[in-house]
Design goal:
- The protein is mainly alpha-helical.
- The protein has seven helices and no strands.
- It folds into two domains: about 110 residues, Orthogonal Bundle (Rna Polymerase Sigma Factor, Chain: A); about 70 residues, Arc Repressor Mutant, subunit A.
- Helix 3 crosses helix 6 and helix 5 runs antiparallel to helix 6.
Length: about 180
């Protein structure tokens, strides 16, 4: 693959990748880091891409979602096994942003508290429900496209969305302010 081909893929998908990352980690700096890792993986694995299996966009979505989920798992693992060290970036000793430091640039200041509660509830869902919800409701992807990205049936996406909706209603009813 030439640098020009990769450059085209990068420029066509960089905003999509960043936005997905931001929806998962809710922090612009972490989202940028993950997006960079996504494109490193894309570059390293482009020779394995099979256009008969999925579109480039669907393939990049899969890589992005997996990178985000891996990042979240690693962050949770650090919290469990190294509570004190997980509170700070290893290189800079700066405090790690937590959900209480909700910093999503797409949310107006007056709505941050409500959106923080909503994202907290979304992020407490099982990974597959969380992914289906983010892709359909926040990224505005069709259920067919989400099914392709998640490598499941459209019926499975419908079921995941229904369960996610029920869980969110329950969680938000128990939350103050909703």
């Amino acid at each position: 693959m030439s640098e020009v081909q990769f450059d085209d893929i990068y420029h066509e998908h960089k905003k999509l990748v960043y936005n997905i990352c931001l929806h998962y980690v809710l922090n612009p700096e972490d989202a940028q880091d993950i997006a960079q890792d996504v494109f490193v993986k894309v570059y390293q694995n482009l020779h394995q891409f099979d256009p008969g299996e999925a579109s480039v966009k669907t393939w990049i979505y899969r890589i992005t979602i997996n990178q985000c989920l891996d990042f979240i798992k690693a962050r949770k693992s650090k919290k469990r096994f190294g509570f004190l060290t997980s509170l700070f970036h290893s290189g800079t000793n700066e405090p790690l942003p937590m959900l209480k430091d909700f910093n999503h640039p797409g949310v107006a200041a007056e709505n941050k508290q409500e959106m923080q509660e909503l994202f907290r509830a979304i992020h407490s869902l099982p990974e597959n429900q969380q992914t289906a919800l983010i892709l359909t409701r926040i990224e505005d992807r069709s259920q067919k496209e989400v099914a392709d990205i998640m490598n499941v049936s459209v019926k499975a996406v419908e079921s995941l969305l229904q369960r996610a909706k029920q869980a969110l209603i329950k969680k938000l009813k128990n939350s103050e302010g909703f």
